[in-house]
Amino acid sequence: MKRKKFLALLLAVSMALSLAACGDDSGDASANSGGSSDGSSQSTQDTQEKQDTQDSQTPVAENATYTFNTSASTLPAGWNPHTYQTADDAVYFDYTTDSLYALFFNDQIHPLEGREAFDGYVVVPSMAADFPVDVTEKVKASHPQFNIPESATSGYAWSVKLRDDLKWDDGTPITAQDFVDSLERCLRPELLNYRSSDYNRGTYAVVNAENYALAGNPVFQSFADAGTTYADFIANGGTDDQVAVDMNGFWGVTGPDSRFNWGYITDDNMVRDPAVAEGEDEDYVSAKYLWDNYLGPDGAYAGSGYDSQYAGTISYPYEAGYSFDNVGLFVSGDNELTFVYANALEGFYLMTYGMSTQYLVKSDLYDANLKETESASGSVWSSTYGTGMDTSVSYGPYKMSEFQADKLMHFVRNENWWGWDSDVYTYVDPEDGNTYQMYQTTDVDIQYVKESATRKQMFLAGQLISYGLQSEDFDQYRTSDYYYATPAETIYFLLFNGHEKVIQERENAADFDKNTTDLEMQMLENFRRACAVAIDRENFAATVSPSRQGGYAFVGNTYIYDPETCAYYRDTPQAKQALVDFYSIDLANYDNDLDKAVDAITGYDPETAKAKFQEAYEEGIEKGYITDTDGDGKSDQTITMVYAMSDEVDDFFRKTFEYLNTSLNKAAEGTGLEGKILITPSAPVGNKWSDNLRNGVMDTQMAGWSGATLDPFGMADTWTDANKAYWGNWFDASKYDLTINLDGADITMSVRDWALCLNGAMKTAQDGKEYNFGYGQTSVDNRLNILAEIEKFMLTAYNCVPIMQNGSGSLLSQQVYYVVEEYNPMMKRGGIQYMKYNYNDAEWAEYVASQGGTLQY
Amino acid sequence: MVKYILQRMLYMIMVFFIITLMCFVLVRMLPLPVLPPDDPHTAVVLMRREALGYNEPYLAQFGLFLKNIFTNWDWGLSEKLYFGQNVWDIFVGKLPASMIVNLYSIIGSIPIGIGLGIFAALKKNTWIDYAISTLTMVVISVPSFVYAFLIQYIFCFKLQWFPFLMAGGTNYFTWKMFRSLIPPVMALSFGTIAGFARTTRAELTEVLTSEFMLLARTKGLTRTQATVSHALRNCFVVIVPAIFGEFIGILGGSLIIEGIFAIPGVGGLTLNAIKGLDYNIFMLSTCFYTAIGLAASLVVDVSYGFIDPRIRMGSKK
After folding, report:
1. Which residues of B touch A853 (CB under 8 A)?
2. Are A254 and B259 an interchain contact pair (Cβ–Cβ within 8 Å)?
3. How many domains is chain B partitioned into structurally?
């Protein structure tokens, strides 16, 4: 008995000790009020109106706090500006960093010619004391190591004077040398920083940054890029052991040396293809295998163009031990920096992208957090910079005051930020005409909240500033005064399979029943056109994803063609005319008003759909795609399109399939295809879905492209590039001629050449003349005309049907309001910078309590 | 007994290394994410993989893994989820939050569960027994995250008695923290209470109908005396190991409950490490739970001998 008591006592003591050891006194988190605790649960029935503007625009009250309470389903684990990888990690920068140049809404203080206040934006010096000065000629003479082209007179080198009151949050000054030291650390070869390529590659690369970051590394150069072929290479004395295959580009695997994407064609070391199940064909491949079977002279793709694109040679263009002194960022004077770029830059792009200095770190703290670790293959460097309170530093309006991993982040004002004592960060309120300091928010509190149900309850209890609506919320809140719809750039297209060879192979497979199923009908233009007008896009979006809206074009509503003036492509007459033409809208019915005509577009015409389905049926019978053996005027086969699923079918897809199948079959009622159209999901194929579409193995998807909000012209290249477009294997844009009238002259060239010309390539038209319609090479009007014509052409090609514009919807708390309600892709709605408060925290708590703890929206 | 324990510990160490090796090799065999060929970051990621030894033979990697642990107690750095951070610090930092929530849950659940079980057994075949048994079955059948949402909705949103989320900070023994933990503790406890109630009722019901209980009553013991001194002691042979098992579960955390109430614990860490291919985190948590599981089985086995003297471990007679 005693022994048992002793054991029990020992157990209890050990548990208590272990618990005591786990706790510490490292401080407590900020309050996370659960609302009033009086147990009252009644909710007011009175709808709260937005507060009177004059009352709400109270400047920061003495000692009052204005807390921006928000939530995140993923909190950053680290925010080292050199190594962060995701947008979740970048949230820290939103509050704690500054930039040389900032974007402000245009107002009386920051006017934009020809635009209403808050209708656009302007670039304003922030950490910079003034706008950049072009010093190309001077630097060309003084710094030959930057290799500025002899012919260049401007755009390559720019000097920027920094403000003299820049400080870190601990009060120590930020100097020009800090910028240079920070970029050096970001690019330092042995650190292998993920973000180094942001500054050493692409349009905005600092000159020679790539040479420094990749010093001593080999590079794959395809035969196509070198302007040669394998045969020519061998004929000119090259040997097989010099030839390599881009294994990642061609096959999606790393090279046998996994640091590199390529392998020599003599190398038969096998690497695992993770996309193929173990034991299946080609679960392991080698460079030699890919060469022998696909890209080599006896391979399946010999002469296809792929052989030149994915085969090439290896070179060592980056000199080992390259000096940072040759990299194009240096201190050029008292608190002055000079940037030298690999390409000429100017204006908006220079100041916003080219002079992005997010690499800025506090060097002593950064170095103290570097760690070298021994690994199986040597040593690797890691950094704990930006992983907690004591390893982080701010130079923006806020600084971190509390952090608990996967739990919360809290920020307070950084009193050492120069902007608080300056009139730069001020604006004129569009309602009352008064001037206010930006950033009324005093505290930012970010809580980890995983479940949307919890977020909604917290929002209704006044504990969050905003709530992103879920599908089930839209019916209730879509008409709320506090509802904000936010468009996104992606247009989703319903794709059609046109890969005739593969479709026929699929139909000839042993397990395919041609008597009941057809895959070929989707290749008919009549069928595609019928599908295009059989779907009520707005209703479709409202049904399957209420935050989105109908999509009608190839370029979405948020694309800006001129970032200097914030001009939208879809607002141009060219873009509107393209839609009016495609949807066969008679302008005369709309008083020749393009806006009215565009507004009237629905893309929904069930009568035309019916007629087109019948025409498709008759054409299908004639071509032998489908049969009608019993002579009832109906197809024997079900027209089937396999939807390429990356994952399991969820609620969104269930609704999508139900809606599309119902709509298409309803439109086909009374035709030979009545009840015979089926869109059906594939088994989940992960990230192979796009390959399956391109290869014709699967038929359809609602897919789209995102990104490049400021470059709608670049999208034309994507649509017409066989390597990028989903339809590249059966639609060759270089085989279709397009005539466009520019400056009174008709110019004819292939659609592909038009797209290339539009993006800066020199191409020869049918008139024998060479043209380049790239940025700065022709008038903006001409470029818009070309883009609109290409867009119209691609719409009429019916490789796909635009169906839905991406977007989201949210509720904004009654505690705050946006100074400007119109959404702007660059400025959003002004963010925390322009957010204003109807109530400070104390007033808000009182207000919420007075409403019974639950607010009505 | 001592020899038996030593023998079991030796086996434990062997099993631990076999499991660790298997997990290490299997997880390293998982396919790495395919990197986009057009992304300039791809080259950096590939170079880092090489530097981290991904291309070495598995046994060489495992050897380095063990060497770092035994020479420097270095479990490596997170390669994905907490890039560059020491995985031991991450894991240990998250353990207390999981432990505290589960400890409160068990401390509350044991007396309530056993009490309900005893009450039901004593009132066998009455409406009280039926009610407790039915409720127990219902509670066991419903997943804990369902309670979690209901508790959050009723007590946090509608009644506003508790905050929605666990309080921030690491000072776990304050009133504010305790109050914020009540909802997750409630969500975790329902199932445990029901489990204890069902086990206790079943065992006690059987014991109460034993002949020795009849003998005890005929010797003149009151019902309470007979139940407490004889019946309960007997059914604890089953209940106490179950309690030990629950205590071991303290360390495991609860993926879903932790997510709903924003508890920064270890619940989702292992799963996220597998999904994110963060090998070092996965290996640490695997080793930890393997060691705990093996130790738990030993403690439970040994505890039988202490609770019931008729059970003798390792005896050859």
Report:
1. 160
2. no
3. 1
